[in-house]
Design a protein that fits this description.
There is one protein chain. The protein is 52% helix and 17% strand.
Length: 700
Amino acid sequence: MTKEEQFSVITGLLLNYETGDFLLLSDLSDTLVSLKDFFLDIEAACLFIDKLLNCITAEMKKAGIPGFAEGISAAIDLLQRLAFALDETAKNDAIQAINSYACRIKEKAAESAAPEEEYDKETLQIFFVEARDRLGSAQEMILKLEENPNDMDIIQNLFRVFHTIKGECGFLKIATLGELTHNMESVLDQLRSGKAGLSQAHIDILLEGIDLSKEILKSLEKKEFVMFSDISLDAYLLKLKAVSAAPKVSLGDILVAEGKMQEEDVQKVLQKQKESAFSKRFGEIAVKENFVSQEELLESLQKQKESASPEGPKILERADPVIKIRASKVNFLVDMIGELLIAMGQVGGSGVELMQMRKITRSLQYAAMELRTDTLHNLFGNLRRAVRDLSRQLGKKVQLLCEGEELEIDRNLIEKLEEPLMHLIRNSLDHGLGSEEARLAKGKPAQGTVLLKAQRQGNSIVIIVRDDGRGLDREKILAKAIEKKLVNQDMAEKLSNQDVFNLVFISGFSTHENVSLISGRGVGMDIVRSVVIANRGRIEVDSERYQFTEVRLIFPLSTAIIDGMITRVSDNLFIFPISSVVESIKITKDMISSVNKRVNIANLRGESIPVISMHNSFGVAPVKDSPPQIGVVCENSELKKFMFVLDEVIAKREVVIKSLGSRFKKMQGVSSATVLSGGKIGLVLDIDEIINISLSAGNS
């Protein structure tokens, strides 16, 4: 583009930015960098543009800097005045005005700047969070691109992601990651310009670049910040070069071919560019170091651009900007609103104003909870990548079906779920899904299916991993358990399928004969169990030989509002999640009978329902001369009915549930707690767990 076109684009970007399109800052930065080519022989103008680029980066980090748009507009006017100066006098006057304005920018920045060390730590922390999010988004786009190789919008968006990361690396002087993203950006530039056609090699190398980028980020986070990481890029960059079918002729090659620079001078410029984390352009350094003049550079740049198709900056809509905030602040807000809701519940009365306050308080609670939650979208995206890579490694055709990835759960739980789910996916692909020939022999399609599903059941989050493979072999598991002396022969015959299947989660237990890089040591499933238990969850396994295997990870909600039935057992209050309650009835003498003097059964309209005594389950003595007279019928996750016998049903109410904390993490049958009117504590029941405990202990 000409100078006139450059200034026109900048003016349009500034006008549109004022309407709230935050993404335009990236386009504005790109256009300013291109504009710099016309001022390379004027040091004051180059330094001035650098200052403007720093201002734009600051606005990216902290949107809404007072007077930003007006200040940039005034600066552009000065550059335009210099660009079109008709004589030396006008040119010198413009340079003097630029120098004066640059000093004012520096003074203003010094006044508003935070202490250097604090600013650096804060900036780096924000960069790490944003870079991880961008890389996760990029990985998902690459997987979509593999399915839709002709979708140029995906390639364009990928280019923008790596361009943004590269720009931030330049600002923070993160040279290694900057060099990596710079080279990945170059490959994507070839794809979007049509100079190279997308191939499977491109997909593989881009995904490998995502992994390498994440590795560099981890390295930077674990130790003191360094410009150059100790992670080598040499092997990866060679692979990148190999997939570039139509490499773009570099500016250095053109300058050498035209005799304007020597090869050793080109290497010196490239080294300086690398040390700047690619924040400076090759031509800018070459002119500054007096290797070429600005006129010679512009002539060579024109030759380089002749084969490129012109493309203006693409403006994307951004209706809902994203902000970053410390987790501690969000947690404090959620806790305080929870306390407010509890306090409102203890205020008596039913006036219109009070009802309105309660409604607003509940809305605040829901909104605050959403700040501490996130969708499973990125987690499921990582698992899609794992299935893709493992299926190719194992030579199996596998499709992954994902359901419920828009479900929002606690961010901390999402981070802890990745490792156990990865182990379950590996087991499904390696152990569960047989070879293509074996599946066809069983009358199954050659392509195996793995279902990854997330759903909310009552006051629990359930994550399901199911495959349509071989299923679990009960006899083989028992034989291995007997061999390892985990059970004896007499005990083995009495174990339920669930008990047998649970044996696979014992450390070192594996029925796989061969150890591979993927599985076979019996360690992965133990990790699954450890993570689930550490987060107060539980595991359920269901399987049918040669048909399927399903593993359910069930976790209690840490903070939420649920509809609960408040009940009394002696002097203790328990809350049944309404989602599990079928009905509550008054018990009559002829309703309950004993079987084998151990198990009590209730006859409810001709249906036999097992009875569980809440007093016996929690070791609470009944009130003297006041026998339990209420039965609450509930369904567990398998839709089987049980009757809980207790003293009284008090009310149905929305309650704010809270985690019990580490001190009570081993309490069984209870998922969480709440504070009720008058400051009393109510325990929220885990229906499935209390049923299992009561049946095994015979508390009926």
